[in-house]
Write a structure and sequence with these properties.
It is built from 16 helices and 16 strands. By secondary structure, it is an alpha/beta fold. The protein is globular. The structure holds N-(iminomethyl)-L-glutamic acid (NIG) and fe (iii) ion. Fe (iii) ion binds next to loops.
Length: 420
């Protein structure tokens, strides 16, 4: 198929965008893209591709923007229940960490998740995945972490594989057994850390090799935070995971700076995420590394906190920045990367172009997929979205609405093709 006459075609070509290079959209006016099967085969000007591909079926998208599907590089997609009551408690003065210390927070979702059947988890997760897709996310990372015991964490991996198989949203799973200290280990984070290392990570790897042998191992992640896992425990977990072959991620500096950003850079993690209170020396260390910084502006927004990632400082230091939703039932239940972009423009002070690059090619780098997704280039997966607007800056400028009119995943059309 030849999709042609796009008012703006954003290719994001040329690989992940570091530092001052962030925001190079590779914009082609009157642009076109040729898709065959599940791949992009050509990108260019409409006139040029019409003469090179005269026999392709055509689709006119004049008045619209075409860009790569969004990549949501940090989600806690699989859970049961909700925490609407805690949202209300926070509004009348309780803090997130206070609610967590009193047995609510993540642990309340753990109770609901442990008692849900795998089928119920799949159906609740699938509903969110389909909403994300409708808002333009074509690939998402998704973490376990609401099981916190070996059997439930393995069920969450299974649920994520099932949701990805049902599609159309493609999922890159992450094992986050170290998301919180479960009630069985209350007051003994070291005991649980040892369990994660000696039992859970090896079990996750064995399960994966038995159930998904053709897929790369999931990421391993840890919540390095006051009230969760300290720096030494985070190191123990990530080093054990690395020894077992897992690629790494870390939750660092969401509430307190414990040194997680530096640890991520040292261990060669794919990403360090949150970074709301990261000190300047660690920003510099992270920016100098290959680790992608993933800012999650829905989290402070969801908590009504003023502490957003110092994204501009990170860009000025030459780092690789991505943005993601962090969708979860506690701090921010938001399926829309368009809303993430709107927040990033206002609170991280990114331009719309920078935010789009951070939500596509750099987000793909944060999940180790920048070779296949995140840009429109020959040979890449045909994952793209068509907006109802003709100026990409409507992303960021407008919020709380859905500008995505059609989504193409692996070359297949979804949503509203008829309206184009
Ligand atoms: O990324 N930081 C840890 N995890 C989530 C919150 C999870 C929850 O509250 O359920 C986060 O913000
Ligand atoms: Fe998170």
């Amino acid at each position: 198929m030849l999709i042609h006459s796009a008012t703006q075609l954003l290719t994001l070509a040329g690989g992940p965008q570091r530092g001052a290079a962030l925001g190079d959209l590779g914009l082609i006016e009157d642009g076109a893209v040729v898709i065959q099967e599940d791949q992009i085969v050509a990108v260019g000007k409409t006139g040029e591709l019409e003469s090179l591909y005269p026999r392709e079926p055509k689709l006119d998208v004049s008045g619209r923007v075409v860009l790569p599907g969004f990549v949501d590089a940090h989600t806690h997609l699989v859970w049961a229940g909700d925490r609407a009551g805690e949202f209300e408690q926070r509004l009348v003065g309780k803090s997130y960490l206070e609610i967590q210390a009193a047995g609510g927070g993540i642990l309340s979702t753990v109770r609901a998740t442990r008692s849900a059947s795998t089928e119920a988890l799949v159906s609740q997760t699938l509903a969110r995945a389909q909403t994300m897709f409708a808002f333009g996310t074509t690939t998402a990372e998704a973490k376990t972490g609401y099981g916190l015991d070996t059997p439930t964490e393995l069920r969450l991996l299974a649920a994520l594989l099932e949701v990805s198989a049902r599609g159309p949203l493609e999922i890159e799973p992450t094992f986050l057994g170290a998301h919180a200290v479960p009630p069985e280990f209350a007051g003994d984070p070291q005991g649980y850390t040892d369990l994660v290392c000696t039992e859970m990570l090896p079990a996750a790897r064995n399960w994966w090799e038995a159930n998904a042998p053709s897929l790369r191992l999931p990421f391993a992640d840890v919540f390095c935070e006051a009230g969760a896992f300290d720096l030494a425990q985070s190191r123990q977990i990530l080093e054990t995971a690395r020894g077992l072959g897992f690629p790494l991620k870390i939750h660092a500096d969401e509430f307190e700076a414990l040194g997680g950003a530096q640890l991520a850079a040292e261990l060669g993690a794919f990403s360090a995420d949150h970074l709301a209170v990261t000190p300047p020396e660690e920003i510099a260390a992270l920016a100098a590394s290959e680790t992608v910084a993933v800012a999650l502006p829905c989290t402070p927004f969801g908590l009504a906190s003023p502490r957003y990632t110092p994204a501009r400082a990170f860009i000025e230091a030459g780092g690789l920045l991505a943005i993601a939703s962090d969708i979860n039932p506690g701090t921010g239940w938001c399926e829309s990367m368009q809303f993430v972009i709107a927040l990033a423009c206002r609170f991280l002070r990114l331009t719309p172009a920078q935010a789009v690059a951070a939500a596509t090619i750099n987000a793909a780098a944060a999940i180790g997929r920048s070779g296949e997704i995140g840009s429109l280039e020959p040979g890449k997966q045909a994952d793209l979205i068509i907006l109802s607007a003709g100026d990409y800056r409507h992303l960021g400028y407008r919020f709380g609405t859905n500008l995505v009119q059609a989504v193409i995943k692996n070359g297949q059309f979804h949503l509203s093709r008829e309206n184009l």
